Fold this sequence. Notes:
Layout: H1 2-16, H2 20-29, H3 35-56, H4 58-66, H5 77-80, H6 88-93, H7 95-98, H8 102-105, E1 108-114, E2 120-126, H9 127-142, E3 152-155, H10 162-174, E4 177-180, H11 185-190, H12 192-195, E5 200-204, H13 205-214, E6 227-231, H14 237-247, E7 252-257, E8 261-266, E9 272-274, E10 279-283, E11 289-294, E12 302-313, E13 328-335, E14 339-341, E15 346-348, H15 350-363, E16 369-373, E17 378-383, H16 389-399, E18 407-412, E19 426-428
Parallel strand pairs: 3-4, 3-5, 5-6, 6-7, 16-19, 17-18
Antiparallel strand pairs: 1-2, 7-8, 8-9, 9-13, 10-11, 11-12, 12-13, 14-15, 16-17
Helix pairs in contact: 2-9, 3-4, 13-14, 15-16
Bound molecules: zinc ion.
Amino acid sequence: MSWLHEKIFWIGSKKRNPSMYRQFLELKNSEGKSKTQLLDQQLEDLKTFVRFAYQNSTFYRKHFEKAGFDPNENWSLENFEKVPPVSKRDLIDFNTAIHTPVAMKEKTFYVETSGTSGEILTFHRDELWDSFNRAAIWRGISWYGVNPWDFSLYFWGYNSDKYKRIKLSVMDFLVNRFRIFDYDPKTMASVGHKLSKVKAIEGYSSMIYELAQVNEQNGIDFKELKLVKGTSEKIMPHYQEVAKKVFGRKISSEYGATECSIIAFECPKGNMHITVEGLYTETDPDSGGILVTNMKSRSFPIIRYKLGDQVKFADSNFKCPCGLNHPVIEEVTGRIGSKIYGLSKNYPSLTLYYIFKNIYFNKRRKIDFQAHQFEKGKLQIWVKESVTEQLNLLIRAESSQYFSDIDLEIIENHDFRANEGKLRDFISHLL
Ligand SMILES: [Zn+2]
């Protein structure tokens, strides 16, 4: 049947994404390039793209002019970096003015995305951009010997709309994929017979972790499996332990966002290589977060965009043993912006990640948690297991290394998954 799915893939992609295969070949071709070649090309592409945006987007023309930057007259990286970063709020508020005539003249796809803050962003993504994104994913999975038409399991968040489910199921059949819609352990256990045939598993890392746990005792032989890909969430160290045990391999991460495309893809040697062929990334001197310029976003330019993630870039001399010279992101440490409030101080929510990471590495203790704040100076930590005296002390001891004016309450709660698709480690209820 695999030949049939391959055929369907080619027919479908020629119709929907005519430039995808060409862009995939270009991406494969750049794998052999030196770091200098890659970065020189990236700067050249950045200049071309920024000039394009200046010419075609009324928002960016004004935005650059305000910063005294005219990319046709005084192009330099230094001047480019004087342009103030753009926020998601800007993309929503100035939506029409950001769009370029490409959105009207060329084939585009209408995209809707909502962030953790609940704001909904919509825009038109042109074919070259959409296809580049798909080609970048294709290149990433190719490092593992996986083809886009191979049999795969795909996790999807909650979706109660029956019509949509049927539509998705048909689509899934065509692209040789089966999909899990919910987090019910029964559903997860019921797909057991299919698991020995999948070549790739893809989804939120916390869901992959749950799937691994459900199947821990089943002894399924994942003989075809070549790639387990986690998206959108931090991959906790204890997820990896169970993944290795059950799937025989760790969860590899794909890092991206709808408006930014694929920012980085983890290679088989465990390093996340940045897609420099389509993106220019920087560290925001103010927030310390990542700034993304998506050089493929012609219909809706994304320039110096504050994605909101805290990212640690690898040293520029770092050389990955896989042979790729693409720069590396060492770690996506978390979201910035959401703060935990003490009585007099405040703390980045990232602190929680460090607390539980330390507990895992120092005490070999894995804890599934979610923290909630309802009032300043107090923090609830929900855990899936029963709260023993020992667990209580462990969390309190580690937390006291970080929090000095927060009163902790540790509560047993099994279903903190139930709210949303994406598992967040901190939810603030403060107004
Ligand atoms: Zn590598």
